[in-house]
Design brief:
mainly beta, 4-stranded antiparallel β-sheet, 0% helix
């Protein structure tokens, strides 16, 4: 099983980035896919999740600015990030779980058994 993120970079505030996460192995459309981020000296936080049925959920801090989607034939997950802010600066990770947590409060990553290596997003 492998999750590989790409698309990170350095951008100015207000600009956009799109992250991609390509899955291989037995990760497929039946899994819950999530995006997490971790800034230096801060705890990891959930950013977005998309279930096997395509339903999505987001952290309050990114609602209205970030959108997650997936291309099942390509086994690829996306995170479109618009109106980026300096506080969005972090390492972003994609992860897979058998099911999405029942509520956002439980979106701490504990249920996610597969993780990518991360891609850095820096907003100045």
């Amino acid at each position: 099983v492998q999750l590989v993120e790409s698309g990170g970079g350095s951008v100015q505030a207000g600009r956009s980035l799109r992250l991609s996460c390509t899955a291989s192995g037995h990760i497929d459309s039946s899994h819950c896919m999530g995006w997490f981020r971790q800034a230096p000296e801060k705890e990891r936080e959930g950013v977005a999740a998309i279930g096997s049925d395509g339903s999505t959920s987001y952290a309050d801090s990114v609602k209205g600015r970030f959108t997650t989607s997936k291309d099942n034939p390509k086994n690829t997950l996306y995170l479109q990030m618009n109106s980026l802010k300096p506080e969005d600066t972090a390492m972003y990770y994609c992860a897979a779980a058998s099911e999405c947590p029942p509520e956002w409060a439980a979106m701490d990553g504990a249920d996610f058994g597969y993780w990518g290596q991360g891609t850095q997003v820096t907003v100045s």
